[in-house]
Write a structure and sequence with these properties.
Shape: globular
Number of strands: 5
Helix content: 25-40%
Number of helices: 4
Largest sheet: 5 strands, antiparallel
Radius of gyration: 18 Å
Structural class: alpha+beta
Strand order of the largest sheet: 2-3-1-5-4
Strand content: 15-25%
Length: 183
C-alpha cells in the first residue's frame, strides 16, 4: 500500500466535494488544486559574505525536506555593488507529496509557534489565484535548531493554485487548513 499524505487524502475526499458544492462546478476536474509551493529567501548581505548563501540554502533545505538552490542576480546594479550572476538568494519548489507534507507541517506546527498569532492576512492574493505569505522568522519551523542559527531572517512562501479567481483560491486554502484572519 502506497503512502498518501494526510492533506492530500483530505483534499481528495472532503475538500473537492465542498468546493464543488460551494462553487457549483459541473465537473470535478474544474475544482482548483494546489499545484506547487515555492519557498524563497533573499540574502542581500551575501554580496559581502558568500557563506550567508550556504546558510540560507541549508536552512531552506531543512525546512522543505528537499535541496534548495541559490538564486543568481539577473543584471548589474552598481549602487549595490552587485554583478550579474552573483548569488543573492535561495529558493526551493515543492510539488506532490512533499508539498502536502510541508503544508501540513506549516499549518499544524509552524504557524502556531508565531508570537501573538491571530491568523494570516487575506490580502496576499495576486488576482490570478495565487497566494503569497511572508514569514519574519525562520525559527518557527521545528526543523531549525535555534542554537545553530547565525542570523534570524524571514522568507516568502508562494502557494500556486489552479484557481481562476482569488475567491476560489482562498476557499481552497481555507479548506486545506490555512488560518486566515476574519475581516
Amino acid at each position: 500500500m502506497e503512502y498518501i499524505p494526510r492533506l492530500k487524502e483530505e483534499y481528495q475526499t472532503r475538500v473537492k466535494k465542498n468546493l464543488v458544492k460551494e462553487f457549483s462546478y459541473s465537473n470535478t476536474m474544474e475544482t482548483p488544486r494546489l499545484q506547487k509551493i515555492v519557498l524563497s529567501r533573499g540574502v542581500g548581505e551575501a554580496i559581502a559574505d558568500k557563506k550567508l548563501i550556504d546558510y540560507a540554502v541549508d536552512e531552506l533545505s531543512r525546512i522543505a525536506g528537499q535541496k534548495a538552490v541559490a538564486t543568481l542576480s539577473k543584471k548589474d546594479v552598481a549602487s549595490f555593488k552587485l554583478r550579474k550572476g552573483m548569488p543573492i538568494g535561495a529558493k526551493v519548489t515543492l510539488r506532490g507529496h512533499r508539498m502536502y507534507e510541508f503544508l501540513d507541517r506549516l499549518v499544524t506546527s509552524a504557524l502556531p509557534r508565531v508570537r501573538d498569532f491571530s491568523g494570516i492576512k487575506p490580502d496576499g492574493f495576486d488576482g490570478r489565484g495565487n497566494y503569497n505569505l511572508g514569514i519574519t522568522e525562520q525559527i518557527i519551523f521545528p526543523e531549525i535548531n535555534i542554537d545553530k542559527v547565525n542570523r534570524i531572517s524571514g522568507m516568502d512562501i508562494t502557494f500556486v493554485t489552479s484557481a481562476d479567481t482569488d475567491k476560489e483560491a482562498k476557499a481552497l486554502l481555507t479548506e486545506l487548513g490555512l488560518p486566515f484572519k476574519k475581516n
